[in-house]
Design brief:
mainly beta, 5 helices, 24 strands, 442 residues, elongated, Lipoprotein, 3 domains, single chain
């Protein structure tokens, strides 16, 4: 089944190898790349290449909605491809592209498509897509249809709106030198009125199980989720282990901002890298707090790690995922202050702990554990609050008074305050000479 319209009679000379016609320009072709939900934002910024029947090459960049267009190309069909190699920094993809044995030609399109999700849980192609009615033609394509090398990609599956894969072959055969035109890409038949939007559907996502990790952060905080995986035992992972394939996959939240916010991460429970299955072992959550504006000569931030463990079976009486599907883990942070260097520059160190239902600090770091099968499709939310009670980093090195914390003068024997303390000053965050924390002056 195909949604292509019959070729108009006036266009047939441009596909014939018997009738020589002078090529004419004036065609315009527009298209959009979307996922199964009809959204093209995931493909924004991808570079594309179009070749017309006169072997003229046109290139461009998909816009913020995944749309592209070619103006004033020669009459007749064209071939669209997205062959650009992946240039990102994801450790798994970089390893697959550079490993010594059978490196893979991974493209930017493949990486983007693997971030999408199927509508049907069984990964069967759907005939219902919001983009179907957005243009003159709707075609369901796979990544392998748009790139040059596809041996490492999944095999094609039946689709209700499959592309006409004979167009590239027929167009190449009509050339005087067929080698001029590549045989990979999707053939498109331009609309005579040049008003239509041609919508493409790329299906490259995986149907692996995952869950959502959320972190509720205080102001001036950011988070990084570092998913840690273990390769399976057996020969399929021998090369992965021998070449030390990547097992930690970080996802960063947006930059630090001065307001509280929620950061969200999708955590797959498994991956397959180069044929080696990886199983999620746990997630380290790096909590980064900023206590002063950026300065090139001084540190202004500090971080700690929370953690989430994945267990096959939870301990007795340990809470699981509640009926609403959201497991909440509470934690609280505070700033520990101290001085550093000859000028006794004030610095701060982040200190965080898990808290119970009454807000009392526990001995362990924020986080917890979930049962692997229970967490599929659910949400784990780490809620971090900030205490307003800063404390000295070294106990008894500052003395708490009615005016605030006052730093004690160190001796040769100790940094602790003596029974008859002698106080000193320190250099505040803004460079002032201060005698009391946090107000600087008494």
């Amino acid at each position: 089944m195909t949604s292509y319209k019959p070729l108009k009679s006036e266009d047939t000379p441009f596909l014939s190898n018997k009738i020589l016609a002078c090529p004419r320009r004036g065609n315009r072709v527009s298209f959009q790349l979307v996922d199964e939900s009809g959204d093209g934002k995931i493909f924004a910024g991808l570079s594309f290449k179009v070749v017309d029947q006169e072997s003229q090459i046109y290139s461009g960049i998909l816009d913020a909605e995944g749309r592209g267009k070619v103006d004033n190309c020669f009459k007749g069909p064209i071939i669209l491809s997205l062959p650009a190699a992946y240039i990102g920094t994801d450790s798994a993809y970089r390893w697959l592209m550079t490993r010594p044995h059978y490196p893979l030609p991974i493209t930017e399109l493949q990486v983007r498509a693997e971030q999408t999700r199927f509508i049907n849980p069984n990964a069967q192609r759907t005939a219902h897509n919001p983009a179907v009615n957005a243009g003159d033609n709707f075609i369901q394509v796979e990544v392998r249809d748009l790139v040059e090398h596809g041996a490492h990609l999944p095999p094609r599956v039946p689709a209700p709106f499959a592309p006409n894969r004979g167009i590239p072959i027929a167009l190449a055969a009509s050339q005087h030198s067929p080698d001029e035109l590549p045989l990979f890409g999707v053939g498109l038949l331009p609309n005579r009125r040049m008003l239509g939007l041609l919508t493409l559907l790329t299906l490259g996502g995986c149907a692996s199980k995952d869950f959502t990790l959320e972190t509720d952060l205080p102001a001036n905080f950011a988070a990084t989720a570092e998913a840690r995986y273990e390769p399976a035992e057996g020969p399929e992972c021998a090369l992965f282990r021998a070449t030390k394939g990547p097992t930690v996959y970080p996802q960063e939240s947006p930059d630090i901002i001065p307001e509280p916010r929620r950061a969200s991460f999708r955590i797959p429970l498994g991956k397959r890298v180069g044929g080696c299955p990886l199983t999620l072992d746990g997630v380290g959550i790096k909590l980064m707090g900023q206590w002063r504006p950026y300065h090139p000569n001084f540190t202004g931030s500090s971080y700690v790690y929370a953690s989430l463990g994945l267990l096959e079976q939870l301990p007795a009486n340990y809470p699981g995922i509640p009926s609403d599907g959201v497991r909440v883990l509470n934690g609280q942070c505070r700033w520990l202050f101290r001085t550093s260097g000859a000028k006794r520059q004030l610095i701060k160190i982040l200190d965080c702990r898990a808290v119970d239902e009454h807000g009392q600090w526990l001995k362990h770091m924020p986080g917890g554990a979930v049962q692997r099968e229970q967490v599929v499709g659910k949400t784990v939310r780490l809620v971090i609050e900030m205490s307003s009670n800063d404390e000295p980093y070294y106990s008894r090195s500052w003395l708490k008074t009615s005016k605030g914390w006052k730093p004690c003068q160190e001796t040769k024997e100790t940094i602790r305050c003596q029974s008859s303390p002698t106080f000193t000053d320190y250099t505040g965050v803004d460079g002032r000479t201060c005698t009391v924390y946090p107000n600087c002056t008494e």
